[in-house]
Amino acid sequence: MSLSFNLLKTSEKSLRLGRLTLIKNQEQNILLDTPNCLAYTSRGCVPHLTPDNLQAIPLIDAVSVTLEHFIDIQPPPSTQFPGGIHKFLNFEGYLVFFDVRDSGKLKSVSYNTDKYVSIYTCHGVRQITSDSYIKYMNIYKPDIFASLADKITDETPSLKRIKKSVDRTLKWLDNALSNEGIQVFGVLTGHNNQEERIRSAQETAKRNVAGFVLNGNFLENTSRERINMLKSSLDHLPSTKPRLAYGLGTPEDIILGVSEGIDLFDTAYSVKMTDAGHAFIFSLDLKNDLDSSKQQQQTINLWDTNFRNDVQPLLIGCQCYSCQNHTRAYIHHLLNAHEMLATVLLMSHNLYHYTNFFKTIRESINQNTFFQKAEQFFKVYGEQKMEETKNSTIIYN
Amino acid sequence: MKSALTWKIIAKCSTTKARVGKLTLPHGPVDTPVFMPVGTQGTLKGLTTKQLEELNCQIMLNNTYHLGLSPGQELIEELGGSHKFQNWNRNLLTDSGGFQMVSLLKLARITEEGVEFQSPRDGSIMLLTPEHSMSLQNSIGADIIMQLDDVVSSLTTGPRVEEAMHRSIRWLDRCINSHKKPETQNLFAIIQGGLDIDLRKKCIEEMVKRDTPGYAIGGLSGGEEKDVFWRIVSLSTDLLPKSKPIYCMGVGYAEDLVVCSALGVDMYDCVFPTRTARFGNAITSKGSLNLKSTKFAQDFEPIEKDCNCLTCKKYTRAYIHMHATRETVGCHLITLHNVSYQLRLMNSIRQAILNDNFPSFIQQFFKELFGGKDNYPIWAVNALKSVNIELLP
Ligand SMILES: [Zn+2]
Ligand SMILES: [Zn+2]
Question: Is B306 a catalytic residue?
């Protein structure tokens, strides 16, 4: 098994087009063109989607699985399964990325020590040590795992606490790297402290990691503020390795993240919107004749009674299963009737649309139109956001 | 009356009253005996219509009461009927709405005019008449529609049962008279008469005169003694014309399907397989598995080894245990398996009748499900004895 990352195209700015190549064996390899996303999973399944429905979304090549969902009981019963995590979760055709914490949860209760990290499961708080995490990874055999991190959840941690978090995370990273066989992404910490973020990035970059994980889950901040926080880490990473960021889910987040050189995102946002009854309709390929003085919607809310007799698909022209077969009126009815097919159809569309959004981003980078399209995007989807990006040096310079 | 179906009996069991038929409805063929899964609100518990087609489902149910509330009659008509609304191009059957009202709404009251009930929307008193039920079902547009009947609990005795039987006949006439689409929708009569043999006979005699495209045996599966239940079923299949499909309403447990098929029933429906899936229960030929139970946490076998459904091909019991009742996917996977189980069971029943080895199929089926003689339900033993089948020890 081997994993490699190649930059196919870079610009003088941080924008980049890459390819992650996973060669599993002689018969199987998985190519993941970046920027791209890992499908968010809950308890090892993509929410609401049975495997046939997941397969109907052709652009999903990688999934992100979270140990947090597996350790109500330790060791997890699934560690007894002889065939590895790909087989157990029926993800044999996918790149499986493993992490400890759920990237979809913004905040989690935690109390960490030098020995362990506390994790909140549905059966209460559980502790996981670096050694037991590595042990489980060696049994599950994912393609990549993120090292254990001492994530701070206090609002205003002391500098001492932040330093400790960087040190612990590096120590646990060294432990993970001493284990051979599975590729490791190093998790960057440093919380809101510029110097510590830099130290974490520089120290992690010195090590033999296959990539980096950045946490953009800063609850109250705007897209730009979140990206700026990550930027102090990004500036100190080698360009040759992939960067995965959590907490950047909205189209704005993604566009800004991509322009700062983030390669991988996750789809937790699409799950959140699905559960809220929303369908994505945003696009990077905006028609020139679109009235940019009028703010466009990025999603439609299917709970809205205006859809009760709307026989259009969620999005005209969309090739997903839902749009090819069902109307807004039907999905509105399913939501009202509290029927589970509502989220099946919304998830199918939203993931299809989200993965396609990444595809259009890659195409625009390839055609050197990304910044131009991004500018148009911010114009069409929000005056405020346009102002916000105009002040930035990244998109308009 | 007019009929929008054709019905051909393809094979008959030489021992029991079982038969294999080909029912052709406006939206395609239905192989009988058939189990019809219930998609109450125009959707079958999280399964896509594509998944149902792949399971070879040829007909499913929608409930008139629920569709009448949402999206509502006007809208479903505007949207082109229930097939189009849910993108289901195969057959549909709708009930009259009456049973749902009597069982779901405490305040329902039955008069000669119809079923009076309090609207769950605004609390106003509404009336479901046979004419209104037909009008609703005509708007929904199912291939088979049911008459409004006067439903009494199968535990009720005395003159109320007789009254309900006579009223159901009168209401059938009103349904026939107000049915607007007999060339595309088949109206089935519902036999009433409680557990009283004479009342059942009388009801059948009168309803057969109306010559509806098919007949349902109603008023059962309401907690009556199973030993009485099967006798009413068997009496009905004896007396109803052999040239019409017979539908036993609300039946769906595996052993009931096998026994009733031996008694000559052609169609069934039940919410059980999909409802039980929501609680984490998977149906197997050896009985039900509650996958929530921790004993499955490390069980790396599929739900059923010889099941070819997506769930059994791809996942272990341990995986489903992790998801059962926690993730919608857990529910979808069990629902897929349960519907697949029901349809597979019906297919094996049909194959056994076609090969004329239904008796030995029944013997094997009971042995596998109940483990042996000591566990066989007495009613099933008696019912099967009545059609010349002795179960294995
Ligand atoms: Zn779509
Ligand atoms: Zn199965």
Answer: no
